[in-house]
Write a structure and sequence with these properties.
186 residues; alpha+beta; Arc Repressor Mutant, subunit A; two-stranded antiparallel sheet; 6 helices; 4 strands; globular
Length: 186
């Protein structure tokens, strides 16, 4: 069951989250799978720490990165952050009609960025000698309760497998969308 839900209620929140570079920062934190400093994230990304720091502070301002520890190392304070764990929802109901279209445009930009990044990684993996990717598209009939149970199950499964538990474990990219079909209401 998904207990943590972060609601993005303002246009600024959506814009902060939908920035492709910031999505890469969040992805890098998730890949590290432990609290990390901005320098560690910048090094893994091959970026300048100041640039990562600027964008990470924006993510922190909306609760998608949290400071979890500080350590003094050789007289310098190292700050360790971790990404928000939970679902992120964009609450269009908070917008009046004039802003709803702008929020929708930002949401579409976010989805496009997520799809594009996932597609790049999938295509890169499919070109490798050891490719083991799978692409599936299908339609299923679910009650609203079954749809929620499925989403909760996927979330719990992903959370359970975010840490390497054995030498045979290999990292897989998972990109999954589940949406109620509006093309046929039968």
């Amino acid at each position: 069951m998904v207990d943590n839900v972060k609601e993005l209620k303002t246009l600024e929140d959506i814009r902060i989250y939908s920035d492709p570079y910031r999505l890469q920062i969040l992805d890098t934190f998730k890949q590290l799978n432990r609290p990390a400093t901005m320098k560690e994230v910048a090094d893994k990304m091959g970026e300048v720490p100041a640039k990562v720091y600027y964008h990470a502070k924006k993510l922190e301002s909306i609760g998608l990165l949290q400071l979890v520890d500080t350590k003094i190392i050789n007289g310098i304070t190292a700050k360790y952050y971790e990404p928000y764990e939970g679902a992120i929802q964009i609450k269009k109901s908070y917008f009046d009609d004039s802003m709803r279209q702008v929020a929708l445009t930002e949401t579409e930009k976010l989805l496009s960025n997520l799809y594009d990044e996932s597609k790049k990684r999938f295509l890169k993996a499919s070109r490798s000698q050891t490719s083991s990717g799978q692409l599936t598209t299908d339609h299923v009939y679910l009650t609203p309760q079954e749809a929620k149970e499925f989403q909760d199950w996927v979330t719990a499964f992903l959370k359970q497998h975010q840490t390497k538990t054995s030498e045979e474990s290999t990292m897989y990219e998972i990109f999954l969308t589940v949406s109620k079909s509006i093309d046929s209401e039968d």
